[in-house]
Structures are given as structure tokens and as C-alpha cells.
């Protein structure tokens, strides 16, 4: 663990950086993990897994064929699954660690361990959970979540796969009527899984009841052959995550028992009678919890990237800051600090906010089990917003970190390219970001309209109702900046709603007016979510009980986060009149001071993320800072370096060279 390693064994620059640490690193690590006990358990699991040679890669993933990449990751993940069973480690516990970083190129069991398991927990009846839960836990059944089709991912109501109930046999008939009805994308579905939760349009008693989840066995549990009536395969190379065998699936009048409809929220009786759920969107529940999980998952990618880039920036010397003086660490350049430090702050802001949403999720789930769905829209809004903003910020942050490492950041061995391809996938999957931000906006507009009419609105949007008169913020304290976010968000919602109404008054129908305002609506969704994150970050920092040094650094990080996002979004603040041009100049000056102060703590701050070298897997970011030796050693692994003269010379280059002689 970084904090107890001491200074020995690392390059001089890092030793010096660490010697200046002004806070208790362990306290910060505990905050990020969510508590001391969780840190202890995480380290136990990571020690157990990282010490195991079975997870070592003999050849870097990038040199392997598509099939060998897949086979390697399946070997590792099966070993991981066996070790988890042996040591009694649950999927949830695995989620608190970064152990899946040992899989370099995606996790073929990822969907099984997340969405499939969560769908059984959240959508299956207790009887169905007894039937499949244990089999899934033992990995006898390996499942995925098959919702997206070639023709429709975003628009779930547009799914074409049908599940038609046949009361004579008490079965559903699953069918893919068109090419666009082909299920397309589910992780692990191509070759790994033998089952899936399939979302299909439920037809019973001659009526379509909309998309519903079904448990479907896809392969023979003994031979692993695809069952008759089903066509399965892998969809081919992707930008990243190439070992995840994302698959395609088609049904040809494939029959499953009636009791395979997941029946926690809605049921079909033997005679075909349909029993409605208490809320029509309860069958979308698995996506909600996964969105929170993904928010955390992509921040972990950002934490890796910023650890790599910060350590590298302390080791790398380039150019002259003062003519004639030795080349400084690139971390001395203010522009470099601006590239890195706000992303260190982001890790805290996003993790703490995602945790807040996770606790709302816990409460709402308990409410739903008691028949109360009042808070579901709020949870949908929060989880959509946090997923979208976290994916966007993490992806931009990872890319900035890559650029901050110059040429070496472009090397696969830096790990930054693969961190980027996995982070950016989170912008698309589990609800495309724009679409999710529009869902947030939908809720904001609806709540604002209700508030104007004096109707009650839920807590996270009650500020829209209060809508304080626009005034210039007299001071620039943290509280004032959070309030400025709130006021600007309320003001943007008000302005956008007025535009929407104006277009409707001019004769446009509501959907077209909505579309005409949708660029602004996405901004509403984003600004509201940013306000939520700022508010959560500040209140977590204010209430946390830690030593003075740790509190000091957290306050400084929180301040940087607020100032950074206020200056980045300055148009909103100027437009709403919450901040003046003079305020923004003051904040920009303060930003310079904050960067200079935090620069001294940059390396200890990323050390506090406590990411082991095996899990960071980077030539540029290892704890000891031996960047150049590692880069050289990795280059030697290139298969082209096995011979001095490559085969291509004899086949192509030599004839070319000789011909021109
Ligand atoms: C530190 C704490 C940590 C704790 C964390 C905990 C850890 C545990 C987790 C572990 C995981 C780790 C991660 C592992 C990695 C996994 C990898 C995943 C791979 C990716 C898998 C996938 O990629 S899998 C496919 C996902 N594919 C979508 O994501 C489709 C998007 N598309 C839609 O989601 C709908 O299509 C869309 C747009 C809403 C419209 O839906 P629609 O057309 O039916 O609805 P409308 O727009 O007409 O809206 C009508 C009204 O429904 C309301 N409403 C809509 N949705 C609602 C909802 N969910 N709940 C309530 N209300 C909802 C709406 O707000 C309206 O309300 P109102 O009328 O009152 O205004
Ligand atoms: C790596 C990866 C893994 C995945 N894993 C799974 C899985 O395990 N299971 C599964 O079921 N699916 C999975 N998916 C699919 C994923 O959920 C969908 O790709 C995602 O929901 C987006 O849907 P789409 O591809 O149909 O995009 P589209 O909806 O076609 O988006 C294309 C563009 O249209 C825009 N757009 C669409 N609708 C609107 C609108 N209403 N308003 C404004 N703009 C709009 C979008 O913003 C985007 O710019 C995965 C995808 C990826 C990339």
C-alpha cells in the first residue's frame, strides 16, 4: 500500500514529493473507500489476488490475436471466480476493489457479476430467486443482460423482440421478427454465457404490454452448445474492451415456460391475464442501479489515469522554466497543474456524490418493497445525471491525463489508451449520455411547472420552487459558490421552460418544441447535476471527522473543484447575474493560488488513491517512478524484436530496395 511503503526504493523526485505530505494519507484512503473496514477488506482481497502468479500476463494483451485475448481473459476471470468462491468473496465485495484491473481488456463475466445478478435480485420473485439465484452464484448459470437490439438501444419501447404468451402450453414464444430485432451488444453473450435476462415485448390476450424481462437459457449447460431455435455469436472488434465477447442473439419461435417471466413486479397468470406493476418503469430498475455502479467504475478509471500522469509529471523533466536553469519537473508548469489537479478533486467529488445516490437507491428500493414509488422519479433523475456527468468528466479527464504525458502517454504500456477506451464506453452504454441528461431535464421542467402551480415537489428539485430572486452573490465563499450553481441552474430551467412554452404558444406541438430546445435542455440536466455534485462534495467535506491536515487538504480540493467548474461554466453565472465579471477574475486569480498550493501535495494525493502497481499496470505510473527502465523493458517484448531482420524484409522490403538499385 502506497502510504506504508515509505520513501525507499523510488526515484529521488518522488521521494522528495512524498516527504512533503501535509495530511494523513490513510484517512483520505478511508474516505474514498467508504470507511476504515472497507479499506481493510479491500486490501485483503487485493493482496490475495495480486500476489497470485496466475493473473500475470506472459505477453502484453496488445500482441495477442482476438481469440487469444478472449481466451486469456476467460482463463483469468475463471481463476478469479474460483478464488472468490474459495475465500468467500462476494461480487459486491469484489466491487469495492480494483481487482478487475487484472483483466486488461474487459471482463467476460462482467455482465454476469453485475447486471444479470442485479436483475435477478431486483426483478425476479422470491420463488424465482430461489430457483436461479444459487445456480448463478455458483456460476452454473452464467448470464448477461440482453436488452439492446441492432435497431434500438436508447428507445426501449421500440424493441422488436416479442414474447407471445400461449395459454395452451403455458409458454412464451420468443421471436426476432426482423434483422433489426437481433439482440446486439450484451457483454459476454457471444461465447461465455449460457443464459440471459432478455427484454422483449410481452404480448398476451392479443395486447402488447411493453418490454418485460425474461430468464432465458441460451446454451446447453453440459455441452455449451447453442440451444435449437437460438442463433448466437460475437459481434466483432470494438474500440476497446475486446475480451468482453459482446454478442448477438436471434430467436426463432423459441419457447420458454410462463414462469420464466421475471415476476416480482408484473405477472402473467396461466390463462394469460396480465397483472400490472405498481409503476410502469419498475422493469427498468436494473439499469438504475447499474448507472450508479458505472458512475463509480469510470471514476476509478480516472483515478488510475491521474495517478499515472501525476507521478510521471513529477519524474519527467522538460524544457526550461527559467533560461539557463536545469530542466524542471513538468509538474512545475502551471498548465500541467491545471491539467491534473482538478481531476484529482473530481475523483473525490464524483465518488462522494455517487455514494449519496447509492444511499438514495437503498431507501427507494426499501420504499418500493413497501409499495411506495413516490421517490422513483427522483432516483431515476439522480442516477441518470450522475452516470452521465461521471462518464463525461472521467473520459475527458483520462484523455487530458494522456495528453499530459506527451508521447509516452500514447504508448499502450502507459495504460492510458486502454483507460480511455474503457472510460469512453461509459458515455454510451447504460443509457447514452445526451439521452440521460434529457431525462434529467424532463424531470426538471415537470417539477418546475408543478412548483409554479404551488404543487409539492421532491427534495432534490425543491430549489426550483424556491427560485430566489436573481442577485449578485456578495461573497465568494464555498457556500456562496454552491448557491450560485443552484441559482444559475434554476435560472436556466426557468429560461428554457419559457422558451419551450413560447414555441408551444406559437403553435409548435410539445415534442417538436422540446426538440427545438433540447440543446438548452441538456445543459439544464448537466448544470443541475453539477450543482448536486458540488453540494454533496461540500457537505461531505464539512461533515467529515478527520485530522486537521486531512481536513485542510479536502477543503482545498473542494475549493478547487468549485472554482474550476464555476470558471469553466462562467457563461451560466454571468447570464443569470449570480456572478459578475469581477467575481470571475477574482476566482481565476484564486485558481492560480490553489494550483500552486495543491501542486506540493499532488503526489501524496494520488498515492492516497492506494492503487497497487499490479492494478495500475503502467510503465509511467508505477510507485517507484522508474519510468524509462520500464518503457525500455516493455519495448523489448515486441514480437518484432525477436529477430533483427523481420520476415517482411525478405518478402516485401528487399524486392523494393533491390529493384530501385
Ligand atoms: C459508492 C457506491 C457504489 C454503489 C454502487 C452499487 C453497485 C452495484 C451495481 C454494480 C454495477 C457495476 C457496473 C458493472 C459494469 C456493467 C457494465 C454495463 C454494460 C452496459 C450494459 C447496457 O448498456 S444495458 C442496456 C442499457 N440501455 C439503456 O440504458 C437504454 C436507455 N433508455 C432508457 O432507459 C429509456 O428508454 C428512456 C430513455 C429512459 C426512455 O424510456 P421510456 O421511453 O420508456 O420513457 P419516456 O421517456 O416516455 O418517459 C416516461 C416516464 O418514465 C420515466 N422513466 C423513464 N425511465 C425511468 C426509470 N428507469 N425509472 C423511473 N422512471 C423512469 C420518465 O421520467 C417519464 O416520467 P414522466 O412521464 O413522469 O415525465
Ligand atoms: C461497450 C458496450 C457494452 C454494451 N453492453 C450492453 C449490454 O450488456 N446489454 C445491452 O443490452 N446493451 C449493451 N450495450 C448497448 C448500449 O446500452 C447502447 O449502445 C446504448 O444504450 C445507446 O443506444 P444506441 O446504441 O441505440 O444509440 P442511439 O440511441 O442510436 O444513439 C445514437 C445518437 O442518437 C442520439 N439520440 C438517440 N435518441 C435520442 C433522443 N431521444 N434525443 C436526442 N438524441 C437522441 C444519441 O444521443 C446519440 O448521439 C453496450 C454498448 C456498448 C458500447
Automatic annotation (TrEMBL):
Domain (Acyl-CoA oxidase C-alpha1) ranges: 284-445
Co-factor requirement: FAD
Domain Acyl-coenzyme A oxidase N-terminal: 24-142
Source organism, top-level taxon: Eukaryota
Active site feature: 430
GO BP terms in the entry: fatty acid beta-oxidation using acyl-CoA oxidase; lipid homeostasis
Domain Acyl-CoA oxidase C-terminal: 479-658
Chain positions recorded as FAD binding sites: 148, 187
SUPFAM superfamilies per the UniProt record, alphabetical: Acyl-CoA dehydrogenase C-terminal domain-like, Acyl-CoA dehydrogenase NM domain-like
GO MF terms held by the record: acyl-CoA oxidase activity; ATP binding; FAD binding; fatty acid binding
Primary subcellular site in the record, as a coarse category: other
Keywords: ATP-binding, FAD, Fatty acid metabolism, Flavoprotein, Lipid metabolism, Nucleotide-binding, Oxidoreductase, Peroxisome
Pathway membership: Lipid metabolism; peroxisomal fatty acid beta-oxidation
Localization (cell): Peroxisome
InterPro entries, per the entry: ACOX_C_alpha1, Acyl-CoA_ox_N, Acyl-CoA_Oxase/DH_mid-dom_sf, Acyl-CoA_oxidase, Acyl-CoA_oxidase_C, AcylCo_DH-like_C, AcylCoA_DH/ox_N_sf, AcylCoA_DH/oxidase_NM_dom_sf
GO cellular component, one term: peroxisome
Family in the record: Belongs to the acyl-CoA oxidase family.
Protein name per UniProt: Acyl-coenzyme A oxidase
Source species of the chain: Chionoecetes opilio (Atlantic snow crab)
Higher taxonomy: Eukaryota, Metazoa, Ecdysozoa, Arthropoda, Crustacea
